[in-house]
């Protein structure tokens, strides 16, 4: 008799652990990921594009000048820095080098098909992306 009461109580305790006890609160589902819509900046029709050669609307304040000075510096170059720039050919560099970078005579390095595929990949969130690994 005593054995059956102890076994019954033990069985009741075990089955009570399977019951809903209020610990299952509503929480977000980590597998249900929702995409946020992209931010859209509404147009401001009061703005007009600047005219070339016109003066800037915002004038540089003393704080902005101090910030630019701290970032880019206005101190003269040291002797060591000047020597390094001259050794690298900084005083003989072509001023229009950026405009001739796309010239057909420019030497380029072939980085391979993988780099071309990455650059030519369509813009998007990558949801439909597929990868082809070389064998």
Question: How would you describe this protein?
Answer:
The protein has 135 residues and is mainly alpha-helical. Helices cover 31% and strands 0% of the residues. The radius of gyration is 35 Å and the shape is elongated. 0% of the residues are buried. The mean pLDDT is 77.
What's the layout of helices and strands?
Elements: H1 2-16, H2 62-72, H3 79-87, H4 113-119
Q: Helicity range of the residues?
A: 25-40%
Please tell me what the overall shape is. Answer: elongated
Stretches with pLDDT under 50, minimum 5 residues: none
DSSP, total strands: 0
How many helices in DSSP terms? 4
Span from first to last CA? 73 Å
- The averaged pLDDT comes out at 77
One letter per element, helices H and strands E, the order comes to HHHH
Largest sheet, in brief, is:
none
What integer value in Å does the Rg equal?
35 Å
**What amount of the residues lies in strands?**
under 5%
Given helix and strand content, the structural type is mainly alpha
């Amino acid at each position: 008799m005593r054995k059956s009461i102890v076994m019954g109580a033990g069985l009741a305790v075990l089955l009570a652990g399977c019951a809903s006890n209020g610990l299952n609160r509503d929480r977000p589902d980590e597998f249900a990921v929702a995409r946020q819509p992209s931010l859209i900046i509404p147009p401001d029709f009061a703005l007009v594009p600047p005219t070339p050669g016109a003066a800037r609307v915002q004038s540089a304040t003393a704080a902005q000048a101090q910030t630019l000075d701290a970032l880019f510096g206005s101190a003269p170059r040291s002797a060591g820095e000047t020597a390094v720039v001259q050794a690298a050919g900084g005083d003989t560099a072509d001023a229009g080098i950026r405009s001739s970078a796309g010239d057909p005579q420019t030497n380029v390095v072939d980085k391979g098909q993988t780099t071309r595929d990455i650059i030519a990949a369509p813009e998007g969130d990558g949801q439909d992306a597929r990868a082809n690994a070389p064998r």
